[in-house]
Design goal:
- It is a single chain.
- With 421 residues, this protein is of the alpha/beta class.
- Helices cover 49% and strands 11% of the residues.
- The protein is built from 18 helices and ten strands.
- The strands form two sheets. Strands 6-2-1-7-8-10-9 form a seven-stranded mixed beta sheet.
Length: 421
């Protein structure tokens, strides 16, 4: 496909997407899908039509942004929110309702999880309201529909499904009691007029988004987030964005795995390195020895096990690791990784998980060691490459980080080429 740069530039301008954060293959694939949607259409013809068609522009964005989320993802964030909300209401003497914002809200799992967590904490419907925004009209429409399949329910703690959902033929419908607490709308975080007439929010959830922007866009978005967050409020982010928030003048509130930051007592902002951390990537079962670089949509990610023979002990342990990691049970996931290594041959994916768990716990040197072990066993392990690159970047080794990112990009291009044969 010729002149890819024009499509990259379009997505950068419209939604702030930095192509290097997701890899060129993802965008090229989306563009190809849109081109062949009309038989016989050329890339140039598609580009010309794209300039004058708002629906086609949105269709391309939808093709790039593939939702991947579930209810109560990062459980400790919601438990922390519930405790802070009770405290915040006492501080303001219950004189108004709490305001909570979720953006991007995707298909609604996060804002609805917020509402369920606060209802479970004993807050009444009059004591809080949740706003959810997303750049995708399709995602917002699905969120308003509030019908969900099994993929939206992960982990062992699913009691909320019994309390707040009604079973249907092909899934579950969220109760009106929760839906009426959430207002959903289309919005772009790069729009300078976004929520400009709204009062600031007590709590803002903006997770796994900043990492997809270049430096100037990160700074621009951060200024918007500061405007939207109350001076005494709390900003919840993704697990890979902590070092970025610290350099931009925020501080962690100190609750493990809550990924929550505030402005109170924060140090002065510091210069931001050229390369930033990366999100928890999607790990798909590989079709060959060298796995393709498969990255999540800009706003979400998950961890799934590598392929092993079904029914084997190794496959069971790998599935358990994934379930525990997805459920936020880091200690149990680490113990299962160690159990695997005691009884099976060294496995790159297990070392990658150990690196990821160490990374999330703030043990950067330990994480580096595990990522390097994963790369020793599987030199083109895509996720280990990008996470190790992120750690090097956070320590100021921009050159080393860039080399690793280039290796990951080359692996992605090679895998994509193999897939097309």
């Amino acid at each position: 496909m010729n002149n890819d740069q024009r499509f990259f530039d379009f997505l950068k301008e419209r939604i702030g997407l930095d192509v290097t954060s997701v890899g060129t293959a993802i965008i090229e694939r989306a563009v190809r899908q849109r081109i062949i949607a009309v038989p016989g259409r050329t890339a140039d013809e598609y580009w010309q039509g794209l300039q004058h068609s708002a629906p086609e522009q949105q269709a391309l964005i939808e093709a790039v942004i593939v939702p991947e989320t579930w209810f109560f993802r990062y459980p400790e964030s919601f438990a922390t929110l519930a405790r802070l909300a009770v405290k915040r209401l006492a501080e303001i003497k219950h004189l108004r309702a709490l305001r909570i914002l979720s953006l991007p809200c995707s298909t609604g799992e996060e804002p609805y999880s917020i509402a369920m967590a606060l209802l479970d904490a004993g807050l009444g419907p009059h004591q809080f309201k949740v706003d959810g925004l997303d750049v995708s009209p399709l995602s917002v429409a699905r969120a308003k529909e509030a019908r969900y399949g099994r993929n939206s329910f992960r982990g062992a703690e699913l009691g909320f499904r019994e309390r707040y959902f009604d079973a249907e033929d092909e899934g579950y419908r969220l109760s009106e009691r929760v839906r009426e607490q959430v207002r959903l709308q289309v919005g772009n975080l790069l729009d300078p007029a976004l929520l400009v007439n709204e009062a600031p929010y007590d709590f803002v959830f903006c997770r796994n988004l900043l990492i997809y922007f270049d430096q100037p866009t990160q700074q621009q978005v951060f200024e918007v987030l500061k405007r939207l967050t109350h001076q005494d409020g709390v900003l919840f982010i993704g697990p890979a964005e902590g070092s970025l928030l610290g350099r931009l003048g925020m501080r962690s509130i100190g609750i493990a795995q809550s990924f929550a930051f505030s402005r109170q007592g924060a140090p002065e902002p510091q210069p931001v390195p050229a390369l930033m951390s990366t999100p928890l990537p999607v790990r798909q079962p590989p079709s060959r020895v060298v796995p393709p670089v498969i990255r999540p949509r800009p706003f979400a990610a998950s961890v799934t096990p590598i392929a092993e023979p079904k029914g084997s002990d190794a496959a069971t342990l790998l599935a358990n690791i994934a379930a525990l990691a997805n459920g936020g049970k880091s200690a149990e996931a680490r113990a299962t990784c160690e159990e695997y290594l005691r009884s099976h041959a060294p496995n790159a994916q297990v070392f990658y998980w150990l690196g990821l768990l160490s990374d999330m716990a703030g043990s950067a040197l330990e994480a580096q060691g595990f990522y390097r072990k994963a790369l020793y066993l599987e030199p083109q392990h895509a996720e280990a490459l990008v996470h190790l690159a992120a750690l090097l970047a956070s320590q100021g080794d921009a050159a080393g980080a860039r080399r690793l990112q280039e290796r990951a990009a080359r692996s992605g291009r090679t895998a994509d080429s193999e897939h097309k044969r």
